[in-house]
Amino acid sequence: MGEREFADLFRTYHSVIVRAAFNRLSDRSDAEDAAAEVFALAWRRRGESEGVLTIAWLYATLRNVVGNQYRGRQRHARRVENAQTASDIAAFDSRDEVLDMRAAVSRLEPVDRELIWMAYWEDLSREEIAQVLGCTPAALRVRLHRARKRLAEALSPTSSVEEASWTSSN
């Protein structure tokens, strides 16, 4: 991968990786640092082989970087307490709704939580998510449907995912 291809990769996925890191770390500065580390590793690996630097590789690397940061931090309780996202998540009108939604998402199993973040906050296409997860788009649709159902249950027994403005153009 040459400099031009790397620059294209960076332009295409930098904001996605920053959002993904933010969703996992709940701190803008930590998210920027994690994204910088991911792309520094990508830069060093750019000449190793074709196909290594894909969205799936970036996400796997991000998971490792975030895992290293998690070991130095308290887990979910601290992330929810420090949530600062009113301006970062445009789907909701008030900070209380954002905090309620983030709290509900944080109560999901890690697999569902990752899927909800990728699909709705990180704006990955269904094909990109399937690639990251190593599944087919059909399997992804089923997994996403189930994750949305569990999120609706976490919000309240009478809530529906549609009421929470969960729509996607992907």
- Helical stretch tally: 8
CATH domain class name of the largest domain: Mainly Alpha
CATH architecture of the largest domain: Orthogonal Bundle
Number of strands: 0
What is the distance, rounded to the nearest whole angstrom, between the alpha carbons of the first and last residues? 28 Å
Could you estimate the helical fraction of the residues in percent?
A: 55-70%
Largest sheet: none
| CATH homology group of the largest domain | Winged helix-like DNA-binding domain superfamily/Winged helix DNA-binding domain
- Beta-strand content: under 5%
Structural class: mainly alpha
Count of all domains: 2
Shape: globular
Assign the CATH topology of the largest domain.
Answer: Arc Repressor Mutant, subunit A
Instruction: Specify Rg, calculated over alpha carbons.
Output: 16 Å
The pLDDT mean sits at 76
SSE string, helices as H and strands as E: HHHHHHHH
Question: What are the low-pLDDT stretches, counting only 5+ consecutive residues below 50?
Answer: 74-92, 159-170
Please tell me about this protein's structure.
The structure is a single chain. The chain is 67% helix and 0% strand. Helix 1 (3-25) packs across helix 3. The chain has helices spanning 3-25, 28-45, 55-70, 76-81, 95-106, 110-121, 126-133, 137-155. Mean pLDDT is 76; it is low at 74-92 and 159-170. It has two domains: 1-73, Rna Polymerase Sigma Factor, Chain: A; 86-170, Winged helix-like DNA-binding domain superfamily/Winged helix DNA-binding domain (Arc Repressor Mutant, subunit A). With 170 residues, it is mainly α. The protein has eight helices and no strands.
